[in-house]
Amino acid sequence: MGAVVDLDGLLDQRRIWRGRQTQARPLGLQPTGHAHLDERLPDGGWPAAALSELLLASPGCGELQLLWPSLARLTAEAGRVVLIAPPFIPYAPAWQAAGVDLRWLSQVEAAPADALWAAEQCLRSGSCAAVLCWPERADDRALRRLQVAAETGQALAFACRPQHAAHNPSPAALRIAVDTRPAQWRVLKCRGGMPPAVPIASRRQG
Amino acid sequence: MLWACILLPQLALDSVLRERDDPDTPLVLIGGATQRRVLQAVNPAAARLGLRAGQTLMAARALADGFTCVEADPAQVEQVQQLLAAWAYRYSAQVSLHYPRALLLEVGSSLQLFGPWPVLQARLREELDALGLRQRIVLASNPVAARMLANCHDGLALSDADDTRTALAKLPINKVGLPTEASEAFTRMGLRQLGEVLGLPRDALARRFAAGVQLHLDQLLGLRSLGLEFYLPPDRFETRLELNFDVESHQALLFPLRRMINDLAAFLAGRDCGVQRFELHLEHVEGPDTVLKVGLLAAERDATLLFELARGRLEPLRITAPVRNLRLLAADLPAFVPQHQALFDPRAQQAQPWEQLRERLRARLGDEAVQGLRAEADHRPECAWQLASQGASGTLQAAADSRPGWLLAAPLRLSEADVQLLGRAERIESGWWDGGDVRRDYYRIETREGLRGWAYQDLAEPGPLWLQGWFA
Questions:
Q1: Which of B86, B128, B188, B446 to pair with B50, CA 20 to 30 A apart?
Q2: Is residue A5 included in any domain, yes or no?
Q3: B371 touching chain A per CB within 8 A
Q4: Overall fold of domain B237-332
Q5: How close does chain B come to A12, measured CA to CA in Å?
Q6: This prediction's pTM
Q7: Using omega within 30 degrees of 0 as the cis cutoff, is the peptide bond preceding A182 cis?
Q8: Largest CA distance in chain A
Q9: Best residue in A63, A66, A102, A117 for a mutation probing chain B (most B CBs within 10 Å)
Q10: What is the ipTM of this complex?
């Protein structure tokens, strides 16, 4: 036990969890655009270069409200955002009104079998800032591939999945469940910190 | 002027071997009349079996078995020579195929760009090795000397006329390209090296030998110049590969395909252009060819990329009949503009540019798979968006959160009992001028599960609510 271990090193590697976050981390590279959500997340936003999982009560239940501010910020910085086989048609005027620069938005049509392949290619290429996919039957292995690809290409990966997938373990760095009644976000898992115990209210307009 | 001669001593054999994926099995090239087939060349594995060039096929069969016989094909050799000329054109504007099995390049003016001769030579050798061709390279001050020195030397580099003359003087007289009767006559006179011949008085030589001998000697020393025909690159690429056996699986087509695409890439780099679309013809024994068209959005010339794209298109193809031959045709060869990359790129780790990624996705998923989104100035929801190759914003600004983010491909009928209407109707009435007349009252609705949608009631046919989008 003679080895001297540097405490800062251990903390940086996140091998030690600190019960109380005494010192605020420098604000993350990838803020979600929702201040009250950012302050609950250990990275101050989306985990950079990693997979985030959105567990939806049903498709169309509020994933865009959650993602739009980030996508608007990324496209404004001339980063490419790719939608892989979205379940509905992205309605261009609404995306534009949300601040997304449509010049940097691309959509890839793919059969379910090819969608994961396409998502992995986009993530791995390093030319995309964010990749959104809707894997239907993604197992642990497929998600891990996405996670590794996101790390390789330094991109944000978002996988939108039904909420019953929440019971299965997942390699995603961040898992957020999106509820409609009440309208709230529940952080189920976040790498590098305890998930906040209290759900976060999502402000829904209209 | 400095001339490099690249001599390809085994061009016929190498051009056969490079198309086979088993170069280590014994193989011989045969030629000659049907009654008396003669081995023209043997590969090292066949040489180990005791086979030699010049043996008759009967003798070879008596000596060993288990070797492959391939008919020598002059047309194929010619094709490889043309390809090599196109390749060499990358390094010099003056390339000549004056001598068979040899390339002459004027490299004096290329050294500024490609570095000193040892560097250029190493590069030439490396690329020839990659093409699967053995080579001897000699640099001399005139083309004829370079060609003749390559008979006896490899890697010799003589940059001025005096050195060239010294080296030439040591060449055996039967290796300097003189007509056979002249070199035999010199040998009988006791002159074994070129230097001894050059020591003879000119007028005595002129009296005894034909005028061609003196001319050739002068050309060797660079006193008179040889009129060379220079290579002019064609403006289309076509290559054909005979498989000689029936291929029914994709996997077996990939190896020859890679070889053809490497040739195409070498040609493109030589022409300094790219390829935007090319066709791969799969020729069957009978029936029309299967044509595989590969189209790209921008001109490319990287061999790996082109191969991957062609492979992506080939794999989903159903091959109906066995394939006998492959033909690659590229007629559309626009200028190639390399990807612009800034030194201080904010995303320096960018491994693969978006254009390449898009091609890769299109190759596997189909030409229309990757699309951008364009907003159109139209109030009808189904007309307010458009798929386009390049996304663009529209001029009509919708108020934030007044339109749903997701639109359903086709409206869905709702039963009124399940939903609750929120707020008042918004009327959209438009399109009378183009036949797509629309008169609808739009409502925001909320379902029992708490989902917010966008539904309309058609005023032309009053009835149920139709769900058209989700405020996600």
A1: B128
A2: no
A3: yes
A4: Dna Ligase; domain 1 (3.30.1490)
A5: 23
A6: 0.61
A7: yes
A8: 64
A9: A102
A10: 0.85
